[in-house]
Amino acid sequence: MIDVTKLYRKLLRLYPASFRQEYEGAMDRQFRDEQRDAHGWKENLGLWLHAISDIAASAPRELIREIGQDLRFALRVYRRRPVSAIIAIGTLALAVGASTGIFSVTDALLLRRLPFGDASRLVELRFSPFSAGNGHAGFAEWRNHSSYLDSAATFSTSEMNLNSGRDALRVRVTETSANLFSLLKVQADLGRTFVPEEDRTGENHVIVISHRLWQQAYGGNPSVIGSVAHLDGAALTIIGVASSRFDYPGNVDVWAPTVFDFEVIPKHGAFIWQTIGRLRPGITMSQARQEFKADVARVNPKSLRPDNSSIPKLIGLRDQLSSQIRASVLILSSVVLLVLLTALANVAQLLLSRTSERHQELALRTALGASRSRLIQQLTVEATALTMSGAVLGMIVALLVARVAGAVMPAQLATQDYTLLDWHVLCFAIALALITGFAFGIIPTWLISRIQPSTQVARMHSGTSEPVTGSLRSVLVGLQVAFTLTLLVSSFTIGSAFLRLVHTDLGFQPANAVTLKVSLEGTRYQVGGAKWQYYSAVEERLQSIPGVRSVGAVNYLPLSNSVLMAGTIQVESGLKVSGVVLNGSMPGYFKAMGSELMAGSDFGFDLSKSPEPPVIVNEAFARDSSFGPNIVGRRIIAPWTSRPYLVAGVVSTARMAGPEYDGGPQAYWPVEEEPPSALTFVASVSEDPRHYLTQCRDAVVGLDRSVPVFEVKALDQSLSETMERPRFYTTSVLFLAALALLIAVAGVYSTSSRAITQREHELGVRIALGASMQQIRTLILRQGTVPVAFGILAGIAGAAGSGLFLQHLFVGVNVSGVMTFVVPSLFLLFIAVCTAWSATTRVLTIDPIEAIRAEH
What we know:
Layout: H1 4-12, H2 17-37, H3 40-80, H4 82-111, E1 122-126, H5 135-144, E2 149-163, E3 169-176, H6 180-184, E4 188-191, E5 206-209, H7 211-218, E6 228-231, E7 234-242, E8 254-256, E9 274-279, H8 285-299, E10 313-316, H9 317-322, H10 326-357, H11 359-367, H12 372-408, H13 423-448, H14 453-459, H15 467-502, E11 513-519, H16 530-543, E12 548-554, E13 566-571, E14 576-585, H17 589-593, E15 597-600, E16 614-618, H18 619-624, E17 635-637, E18 644-651, E19 666-670, E20 678-685, H19 693-701, E21 709-714, H20 715-722, H21 724-758, H22 760-768, H23 773-806, H24 818-839, H25 848-853
Parallel strand pairs: 3-8, 5-7, 14-19, 16-18
Antiparallel strand pairs: 1-9, 1-10, 2-3, 2-6, 2-9, 4-7, 5-8, 6-7, 11-20, 11-21, 12-20, 13-14, 13-17, 15-18, 16-19, 17-18
Helix pairs in contact: 1-2, 2-3, 3-12, 4-10, 4-12, 4-13, 10-13, 10-15, 10-21, 11-14, 12-13, 15-21, 15-23, 15-24, 21-23, 21-24, 23-24
């Protein structure tokens, strides 16, 4: 049977400590008396209802009143030591802010709901057992008989020219099976999405446009439904506008149900299909993977061999959307966690010192009748006020971190933007502040439990502490040093890797160059010799701009994230060079790029006078061919034709993907021979290229407004964008390591200074007995550096483990070599010794007579 009086006493715990101390006994006696006088269940029920309503009405009011008193007292306490309070709040603001900002990225990628119906059952089939090239009938046959998928859709994404009667635009287009929207369970904001019949040829001349494109190109006009737009020259009817929350598979402007039809929109270059599906009800991810593997083994068993670099996989759609930056985000989260723990150890040390300094005050309040729960509440409120202040200021830091992370590591979908205005993120920040505040309240609680008011009031004075308290502070210092050393080694490693990237020879000069791209798909220039005429006209217009020194053009520009076409080329000797990037260029391109011609010459301007068409190879190709620079004048046979080409020159190897990756073999053929549908022009200018962006764009747009001109930027801007992520990672780790170092220095200084305060009487006795100031300082220094030394040993172990994760940030990061650990360790030890030695300066001011007298 339930003891109702015990239950009531538990309810009284809802009141704050001082209220319970004064009124709990009387309220308990009154309740027992009323409960004893109550007869029948109706009177007992009325008694309980009255008691509960009274507690519900008065407990929050009393709690707010008492917490208000505690906050005012905490303000007076921190006002007496403003510097240490400001340092603690600033440290927490940086640590909590960085943690919250990075958590906003984690929330967007891993926690926030995707804008699809029942998104948890959506999967991507990497290298699926079906190819869209088999047509709609084959796809439908495979999809309808799948044992693990309820439905599936396939699509391919590329860039195309859109002409809607205004200026031509370059847009991102997803050609898909007609069931993509129904599979994802999303609806159009305006009009409709595709119907199953629109998978068939003749019924698929329709498109759905994105909400963003509707606003930008059509001004948000509802009459856009039913109008005709031209994609690469194909006339298609707009039937719907997608939801503003939908842009899957990522920044898509147009969706067309033409993935099975190669005639409606002509296909050019690489065409890569992706397949997604929805698991059947009752099928787990593990079961689906087993059945998927069996499905693949039936269709293409060779693809499952362990030596295959592209083994088919079935993964959750959320994992697929976050796969590119998932590891990086988790690593940054770990780094921020180390800084947060360092900051928390510092604040814990501050509060520990504060409580130790106030030992006499707490003992006196206990002797005067204050309950331990009341003191615990007071100290917990003080700690929570400190952490909440840091958390509030930290939201400014978090906002900055989220914005920078969003620019450097953009999420694949618009709905995955990194925002603090999300309940996950806000709850994280509040919980972090509250939990740390309550956790810090535990340390003073432990100290309060050791207070013996009957004896300690008389004999203790401010600044006295027990040995175990000093040991706890030493442990906190050791932890700070360990975390800091791990971060220092990480920053040393990642900084060295970034410097290597910065000083990498790119094979071209990115300074003072303007780049812009044009595409002739679907325009009047895509047939006959009109392509070359247009490209020549563009070259002339750019060359006529004052300040432009040279102009060239190329198929694949370095740093442009293009899908590169590669093949195998046979050299005259019979040797074959594989993995050669086949690139077309115009005369003047290498000069405009600042690429060095290592041997031979550039293309001539008249191919008709050459009995054999020229080709220019890079150093990597010349090296792999075994001829080196002597390859000039030799013949090669390219995969696109059996006609021999004559090597006219050797040019420096350009790192197409940026400084992180080596440049492979490349062969440049003259685009005049067979002009492509798109080219990127490069104009070398005499001044800051940003001053020429508008002039260059207007010069090309003025030639024909039906041809889209896009990606107009300075070449060094492209390099900066390529380096954005390594720069962000490097800057973040260096900043966090510096912050942790400052926190650790503050901790070491505080511990050394505190040790002097606690041992002032002992030191006075030593000095009175003849010990020199130098001996005293050395003694304190030796004792103060012991936790630092243990922290360094622990930090070395942590730093060694960090190398396994840092390599996921960018290429070239690797924790190895003795100096990687020795240099940061010696640096940290030097800083710690200097800090502790500086703190011992206070020894010089000790008067031994006063120190001895102060103990009595």
